[in-house]
Amino acid sequence: MVSQGVGSIFRRKDGKYFVYLPKDLVEDTSFPFELSSSVKVNVKFKPNEKKIIIESK
Questions:
Q1: Is the confidence at residue 57, as pLDDT, over 90?
Q2: Which residues contact 28 (CB under 8 A, 6 or more apart)?
Q3: DSSP output for 14-30
Q4: How far is CA 15 from each of CA 5, 11, 40, 43, rounded to the nearest angstrom?
Q5: Model confidence at 18, in pLDDT bands (50, 70, 90)?
Q6: 20 to 30 Å CA-CA from 39: which of 13, 21, 28, 56?
């Protein structure tokens, strides 16, 4: 079971940001999102903590 991994946040030339997740993490059977192509999610963070929270919409 893979429940953590190292990804990255990337800024494109057009100013959009993307969050990349490791393939092994996303393809694990316990991954909490069903992915066929893309999924809308809510993203939030607490200003004084160095973490983001991604939840299904």
A1: no
A2: 1, 2, 3
A3: TS-EEEE--HHHHTSTT
A4: 25, 6, 19, 18
A5: very high
A6: 13
